[in-house]
Specification:
6-stranded antiparallel beta barrel, serine protease, mainly beta, Trypsin_dom, Peptidase_S1_PA_chymotrypsin, Thrombin, subunit H, about 10% helix, single chain, about 30% strand, about 260 residues, protease, TRYPSIN_HIS
Length: about 260
């Protein structure tokens, strides 16, 4: 739901979780379809940890048998065999190299009530033999430029992408993010992190919920710092994307994964 929730979160119970990169123009419900701006197709194998979930969300392989996604993408915790995880492809219509595995269990963040704590784990019936994405355990990497990727809507109120799209967005500090007012006044600073351009134009959108926001660590390896959560529309000026601050929940996520 992402982006239009808090009005709409960026998943796909109301939308979806992939990359919405929209043209720079005033955005409203009646805006004409805009071409993709600022984003490009990811190459096959570029982000092998990316997962597309059948409920219309994204995710990343936390382990080869556990997907890290957003809490708002799932309905509570417990046994669950209704979700299919697709991995190994950038083109959702390609069968070459595609791996599809059903879920067995879901663990939604304890205490999740729609604000903050927007993370969840999905255990798969069998491991997916692809690289995993490590998560940040400290706030060290919660700054700089981040990579976002997904199969979500390519414009606000649009439709999802067949191909995995990627883009780069800059960190927005909490004071600036809250200063945009409206929905952003309710930012949970200790649990959420903002990223995007003041002018808008590049963003995640519906269908990208649950997907990772990541960057390179000091060793040059990808590390996840955020989970696509919500925002005010998609790629609007002064309306950055809001992401679950992974480092805040790193120990809780590790404990939850061990319990699965």
């Amino acid at each position: 739901m992402k982006k239009l929730l808090k009005a709409l979160q960026r998943c796909a119970v109301l939308g979806a979780a992939a990359l919405a990169i929209v043209s720079l123009q005033p955005v409203n419900a009646s805006a004409a379809p805009a071409p993709v701006v600022g984003g490009t197709r990811a190459a096959q194998g570029e982000f092998p940890f990316m997962v597309r979930l059948s409920m219309g969300c994204g995710g990343a392989l936390y382990t080869q048998q556990i997907v890290l996604t957003a809490a708002h993408c799932v309905n509570g915790s417990g046994n669950n065999t209704s979700i299919t995880a697709t991995a190994g492809v950038v083109d959702l219509q390609s069968t070459s190299g595609r791996v599809q595995v059903r879920s067995t269990k879901v663990l939604q963040a304890p205490g999740y009530n729609g604000t903050g704590k927007d993370w969840a784990l999905i255990k798969l019936a069998q491991p997916i033999n692809l690289p995993t994405l490590k998560i940040a355990t400290t706030s060290q990497y919660n700054t700089g430029d981040f990579t976002i990727a997904g199969w979500g809507d390519t414009r606000e109120n649009g439709s999802g992408s067949r191909y995995l799209l990627k883009a780069t967005v800059p960190f927005v500090n909490d004071a600036t993010c809250k200063g945009y007012g409206g929905l952003y006044s309710g930012l949970v600073s200790s649990e959420e992190i903002c990223a995007g351009f003041e002018r808008g134009g590049v963003d995640t959108c519906q269908g990208d919920s649950g997907g990772p926001m990541f960057r390179k660590d000091n060793a040059g390896a990808w590390i996840q710092v955020g989970i696509v959560s919500w925002g005010d529309g998609c790629a609007r000026p002064k309306a950055p994307g809001v992401y679950t601050e992974v480092s805040t929940f790193a120990s809780a996520i590790a404990s939850a994964a061990a319990s699965l």
